[in-house]
Amino acid sequence: MGISKTPYDVIIVGGGIVGLALALLLAKSNKRIAIVDKKGCVSDFKLAQYDVRVSAITPASVKLFRQLELWSEMVALRVSPFTQMEVWDGDGRGRIAFDASSVGENALGYIVENKLMLHVLWQRVLASAQIEVVTGVELERLQRHEDKAIIDLHAGDRILSAPLVIGADGAQSWLRQAANIAINARDYQHHALVCTVTTEKPHHQTARQAFMPQGPLAFLPLEESNVCSIVWSSAPGHIESLMQLSDAAFAVALAEAFQYQLGAILEVGPRATFPLTMRHVKQYVQPGLALVGDAAHTIHPLAGQGLNLGLADAALLAQLIMEDYAHKHDYVKYSTLRRYERARKADNMTMLAAMDGFKQLFGNDIPLLKWLRQRGLNVTDRLPFIKDLILQKAMGL
Ligand SMILES: Cc1cc2nc3c(=O)[nH]c(=O)nc-3n(C[C@H](O)[C@H](O)[C@H](O)COP(=O)(O)OP(=O)(O)OC[C@H]3O[C@@H](n4cnc5c(N)ncnc54)[C@H](O)[C@@H]3O)c2cc1C
C-alpha cells in the first residue's frame, strides 16, 4: 500500500488545553485543521475525584472559554471561583490582601481541574466537522517546502501537509526542536509538589500563598468549603523528602509550614511533583510555523500564569490568522506571524521577568531584602490604586 498524503490548512501539534482551544478558535473559519497528539484523546476526568492538577485561570481565560461556548459546560461540571487572595511573607510580618469587588468583578479567578478542561475541549473537538484528530502517533520528521510544511508521521504510511504548522506540544516541544528553534532556559531549582487536601477550617473562597525562603506554598480553594489544591514549590531535595513522608506526617508538615492558617490538615490525596524550569524561545515563528503555550514558554507556577499566557497566545494567533483568511489570503502571511510574535513575546517576557523578581525577592533571607518585602507588602496593602493595578495585570484585564 502506498503512502497517503492528506492536505490541511493548519496542523496543530499537541492536543493539550492550549492546542485544543486554538483548534476550536480556528474551526470558526471554513479551514481544515488537523490536531496531532502522541497520546489518546479521551481524558479520564471523573466528578467523584478531584484531579491532582488544577489551574487558577483568569477572567481573560474565562472570556476565551465563553467565546468558545465552553464555559457554561465547565461551570456545570465543577469550577471553583475565588473572590479573595491573601499573600504573606513566611514569618507572617508582611501581608497583602486582594478582593474581587475592588475591581468590580465577581471573582478574581477560578480554580479549574486540568482534566475537566481537557474533557470539555476534547468533546467539542471530536464533534467538529472541520477538525481531524490524529492521536497515538509519534512524529518523525518535519520537512519544509517553500509554500508548506510537511510532517512525516512515524507510522510511515501517512504524511500530513499544511501551509501552517503550529506547535502546542508542551515544554519539550518536538516541533520546536525539529525546527531548530533555540530557547533560553534556566532551572528554577525548585520542584513543585501538588496534592488535594481537606482542611479543618473553611477556605472562604480565598486563594492563599505563603512565601517562605525555600519557596512559595499555595492553597487554592476547591468547590467543597474545606478542600484545597496545594502547590508547594521548594528545593528538589526538600520536595523529595516531603514525598517520602507518610500521609499523616505530610499532613503535619504541611499544616506547620502553612502556619495553621486553615487549621490542621485532615486528609491528603495522592501527591505528584514537577521540576520547574524557565523557558522562553528566541523565535515564536518561522515562515509557515508558530509556537504557542508551553512550547514557547514555561514559567514558575507561583502566580498561576502559565496556562493563562498560553491561552492568550492562542487567542491572538487565532485572531490574526482569521484576519488573513477574511482577506481571502490562502496562506497565513509571515508578516502576520511576526505580528503575533512581537505582541506575545513582549507580554510573556514581562511576566517571566516579574516571576524572576518575585522568586529573588522572596527566595532569600538577606535582612535588608526581608525588611523591604515585609514593608513593601504592608505599604502596598494600604494603597488601593496600586493594588488594583497589580490585580488587573494578574487577572489579564
Ligand atoms: C505545578 C504546576 C502548577 C501550575 N498551575 C498553573 C495555574 O494555576 N495557572 C496557570 O495558568 N498555569 C499553571 N501551570 C502551567 C500550566 O499547567 C501549563 O502552562 C499548561 O498546562 C500548558 O498547556 P499546553 O497545552 O501549552 O501544554 P501541555 O499541557 O504540556 O500539552 C502538550 C500536549 O502536546 C502533546 N505532545 C507532547 N509531545 C508531543 C509530540 N512529540 N507529538 C505529538 N504530541 C505531543 C502532549 O501529549 C500534550 O497533550 C502550572 C504548572 C505546574 C507545573
Descriptive notes:
The protein has helices at about 15-25, 60-65, 70-75, 115-125, 175-180, 235-245, 245-255, 305-325, 335-360, 365-380, 385-395, and strands at about 5, 10-15, 35, 55, 80, 85-90, 95-100, 110-115, 130-135, 140-145, 150-155, 160, 165, 185-200, 205-210, 215-220, 225-235, 265-270, 270-280, 285, 290, 295-300. With about 400 residues, the protein is an alpha/beta fold. Strands 6, 7, 14, 15, 16, 17, 18, 19 and 22 form a nine-stranded mixed sheet that branches. Strands 9-3-2-13-21-20 form a six-stranded mixed sheet. It has a four-stranded mixed sheet with strand order 1-12-11-10. The radius of gyration is 22 Å and the shape is globular. The mean pLDDT is about 90.
List the helices and strands and how they pair.
Layout lengths: L3 E4 L2 E4 L3 H10 L6 E5 L16 E4 L1 H9 L3 H7 L2 E3 L1 E6 L5 E5 L9 E5 H14 L3 E5 L3 E6 L4 E5 L4 E5 L1 E4 L6 H5 L4 E17 L6 E7 L2 E7 L5 E8 L1 H9 L2 H11 L7 E4 L3 E10 L3 E2 L2 E3 L5 E2 L7 H21 L7 H29 L4 H15 L2 H11 L3
Parallel strand pairs: 1-12, 2-3, 2-13, 3-9, 6-15, 13-21
Antiparallel strand pairs: 4-8, 5-8, 6-7, 10-11, 11-12, 14-17, 14-18, 14-19, 15-16, 16-17, 19-22, 20-21
Helix pairs in contact: 1-4, 1-8, 8-9
This protein binds flavin-adenine dinucleotide.
